[in-house]
Amino acid sequence: MGSLESGIPLMKSSLFGPQLSRKEKNHFSHRFRSSFSRLLFKKLDYVQWICTVVVFLCLVVVFQMFLPGSVVENGGEESLRAVRISSENLFRDGDFQKLVLDIGEDAVFLPRILEKFRRGGDVDLFNHSVQHFGFRKPQLALVFGELLVDSQQLLMVTVTSALIETGYEIQVFSLLDGPGHDVWRNLRVPITVIRTCDKRNNTVDWLNYDGIIVSSFEAKGAFSCFLQEPFKSIPLIWILHENALAYRSRQYTTNGQIELLNDWRRVFNRSTVVVFPNYALPMIYSTFDAGNFYVIPGSPAEALEAETFMALRKDNLRVNMGYAPEDVIIAIVGSQFLYKGMWLGHAIVLQALEPLLADFLLNRDNSSAKLRVIVHSGELTNNYSVALETMAHSLKYPRGVIEHIAGDLNSDSVLDAADVVIYGSFLEEQSFPEILIRAMTFEKPIIAPDVPMIRKYVDDRVNGYLFPKDNRGVLRLILLEVISKGKISPLARNIASMGRSTAKNLMVSEAIDGYASLLENILRLPSEVAPPKAVSEIPPNVKEQWLWHLFESIPNMTYQHRALRGIEFLDKYEGQWNHSQKNRSTTTVAASDTFVYSIWEEEKYTQLAITKKRREDEELKDRAEQSHGTWEEVYKTAKRIDRLKNDLHERDEGELERTGQPLCIYEPYFGEGSWPFLHQKTLYRGVGLSGKGRRPGRDDVDAPSRLPLLNNGYYRDLLGEYGAFLAIANRIDRLHKNAWIGFQSWRATARKASLSRTAENALLDAIQSKRYGDALYFWVCMDTDLRNPLGKDFWSFCDAINAGNCKFAFSSAMRRMYGLKDDMDSLPPMPMDGDTWSVMHSWALPSRSFLEFVMFSRMFVDALDAQMFDEHHSTGHCSLSLSKDKQCYSRILEVLVNVWAYHSARRMVFVDPETGLMQEQHKFKGRRGQMWIKWFSYTTLKSMDEDLAELSDSEDPTRHWLWPSTGEVFWQGVYERERSLRHKEKERRKRKSLEKQSRMKKRHHQQVIGKYIKPPPDVEISNSSAIAS
C-alpha cells in the first residue's frame, strides 16, 4: 500500500512529462492528429515496453542467484553466463571479509514461550525461598509409545537418571512393552504397560503426578487421556524428534484431510511445551505452532545412528559410489537451513581447494590418487547442481571432480565414504550442527569455521580444525596439513579419533540442564512437595556422558531407523483413523435412521393418547361432580404441583432398588477421565459437577441443575468435590430418600482405597444394627495418604497441604463466623491421641446429621470466601497455595468434616476398605474437656443460619455474598411472610367482592312499563276453536 504514496506515476502519459491542460490540448490538437506524431507515439510506447521487460528479466536472474538452495531455474546459456560472470567477479575482487558478512542470518528461531518464562505469567517458577514442608518428592510420569532401544530411550534414561539425583520420583508408562524394559528396571524405575488409554479402560489417576513427559509422536494413543477432564490442566511436555509428521501434514492439507490434521493439532495445543532437539524442527512444524515450541539441544541420536550405520555396513561404499580406494574424497557439508548465502560458502571452500588440486595433479609419488569433492545439501534441488557446475567451470576444476549429492538420507553414505569433512557454512548457528556430530562419530577429520557455537565444542587441532571465517588462507594451510602427499596425515587421524570420543557424549550437560530448567519453569508444586535441587546444584558426574552401558547389556540389541519407524507409524495410524471414521459414519447413519423412526412412532402414539384423553375429559366434564375447596387448599395444591413438576420422570430399576436401601453413596466426578473409576452398583450414584461430561445411560445427579452456583466455573473449581455436598443438601427431600448418606471420591477408587464388597456389607450391617449410633464412618485415613508419609498430626498435615496457612485461615474463618474478637483463640483443638482422621471425602453418616454438617460448612465457606475472594478473584493467588490455584478452598474443605464430627460429639469409626473391620477413633473418654460442643451444637448453628437468612432479606443484592447461593435460605420469617401475603391476597379478593356487591346495590334499576297476564286455559281453548270455525 505504501507504493501508492511513493511518487511513482500512475498513468502512462506521465512518463513523457507533465500532463497538459484542456486548453493546451486543444491548442496542439492538430499535431497529435498528424500521422507522424501518432507513429512516433506508438514507437516510443513500444520501446518503453521492451525496456521494461528487459529490466524485469535481469531482476529475475539476480533474484534466482540469491534464492535459498537454488541459483538458476534452468540450464539455459544466458543463465549460466550470468552465474559465471558473478563467480568470476567474486573471486577476482578478493574482498573476502565483505563477502563473508553478506552470508545472511535469516534462520533464527526465538521460542515465544520464553517470554512467558521471563514474565512468570502463565507458568510459575520454583520458589526455593518459600517454605516447603517436603513430605514427598515431586512425581513425574514418563510416557512412551513402545519401550524400544533407540536414541530417545537413551536420551530419556540419561535425563531421568539426572532428575532422580535432583530429587524427582519418576514412573514409566508405555503403550507397548519392549526390550527397553530391562533398562528401566536396572535404573530401578517402576514400569506400567497401560496398553490403551480411553474413557473405559483408563486405570491411572494422572492427578497423582505433578507433570507428564511424553516421548515421540508414537505415544499419540496416550493423549486421549490427557485431552479429557480432569487431566487437562496437568503440565505436559511433549518431546518430538521426528520430522515425518511435519511433511505428512502437508499431504493432509493437499488431500483435504482436515479432520486428521485437526486431530494432531489438538495434541499440539494440549501440550504445555513441545520440545525439539534442534532449531530446524520448529520451523518445519510451524503449521502446528501454538506458541508452546521450545528447543533443548543435545541428543545421542546422531551418534547412535552413525554407530548403527557403521555396524550394519557390509559393502564398500566408496567402490559402490564409483570411487577408487586410493582416491582422496573431501565432503563439503553445510547447515540444515536454507539461506541466501549458502552457495557463497561452498564457493569459498572450493576456491580454497585449488592449491590442493594442483598438488594432486603434480604428485608423482601417488599418481593414481585423485582428488574428489562431494558437495552435500539437504534439499533435493536440480538447480543447485547447475550452480555447482557453473562455479566449478569458473574455478577451472576438471570435469568429474565435483559431485553434488542431495538428500538427508544420503548423508551417512557421504560421510562414511569421505576422508575429510569441511563444514562450508558461515551461518551463526544456534546449536552445534548435527551433521558435524555424525562426521566426528564416523571418525573423520572435520574442518569448520570458528563461529561461536562450533568453537564451544571443537578445540583447534585437538578434536578438529578451525579456521577464521574471514581468512581464506588459513583454510588452505589446514587442507595442506591434513592431506599430505595424497594421503591423510597421521596427525589428522589422531585428531579424528579424539573427535569420535567427543561426539559420542556431546552436549549431555546441555540436555540435562535444559530439561531440569524447563521443569522448574512449568511445574506448580504443592506446598507438601519438597522442591528438587536447582540446576546449578546438579552433580557434574551425572552430566558427563550418555548412559550407553545400560543399553550395551541388552542381548540381541537391534536398532530401527527413527525416520523409517515414524513413517510406518503414521501409515498405521492413518489406516486406523480411516477405518474408525468409516465405521463411525456407517453407525451414525444407521442409528440416526432408527432414532428418527422411533421418535416418529413415539410421537404418533402420544398424540393419539392425548386426543383420546381429551375427548373423554370433555364427555365426563359435565357429568363429574366438581368440588370447590377453599383458597388455602387451592394454594397448597398449586405449590405441591409446582414442586413435583420437575420430578415427573420414570424411575429406572437402579433407583427403585436404591430407595429400599438404608444407605446411598454418592461419587462426585468432573469430566470423562474419571468415568472408569465410578461404580456401577445400585449402592452408588454419580454426581456430575458439570453439565458436560456426564455418563450416558446412568441416573447420575446433575449438580449444576440442583445448585446454580456450580454453573459458575470459578466456584466449581474453587470448591472441588465439596460442591456435590451443597448440591445434594439443597432440597434434599426431593432427591435423597435414604436414612443414611455417604460420599466417596473417585480418586479413592484409583488408589485402591474404595470399599470392597466385604466392607460394603459390613458397613450396611453396622448401620442397620445401629452398632455405633449417630456416627461418622470413614474408610480413607490420613495415615495412609501419600501426602503424609511422615504421619504428621491433623493441623500439621493441614498446614502442609495448604501452604502453611491452614490454621490461620481456619481460625480467621471461625472468628468471622461467630463474631469473636481477634485476641480470642478460635482454632478448635485436634489432639494427637494415636488415632487417625478422614481424608478424600470418603465417609458416611445419617442424613439428618449430614444436613447439620452442611449447615455448619456453608457458614464456614462463606467466612473463608469473605477473606480470600478479592485477592484470589483478581490475581489468582491464594494464601492456601504457593502459586496460582483454581482449587484454593478444596484442600481445607477436605478435612473440615473431622473438625465438625469431633466437636459435635459424633462417634468416628474407621472401616478397613479391604476387610471391613471397624475401629472407633477418638473415643469419648479422651475427648472430655477438649470438645467445643456449645459452638457446634445444632441449636447454635440453627440460630446462626436463621440470622443469616433474615439478613439476606434486607441485604443489598449487588454486594458479593456467597452464603445465599450455597443452598436454601430459610427462617421463621419466610413462613410469616408467605402467610401474610396469602392473608393480604385473601383480603384483597374479599374487598373486591364487597365492592362489586355494593355497586350492584347502588346502581339504578329501570321501572317496569307493564305486565303480561297469561289467560286461563279454558279461555285459550275457546279462542282457538272460534278461530278454527
From TrEMBL:
Boundaries of every Glycosyl transferase family domain copy: 384-484
InterPro entries membership: Glyco_trans_1
Transmembrane segments: 46-67
Keywords: Glycosyltransferase, Membrane, Transferase, Transmembrane, Transmembrane helix
GO molecular function annotations of the record: glycosyltransferase activity
Region (Disordered): 982-1029
Stretches with biased composition (Basic residues): 982-1006
Protein name: Glycosyl transferase family 1 domain-containing protein
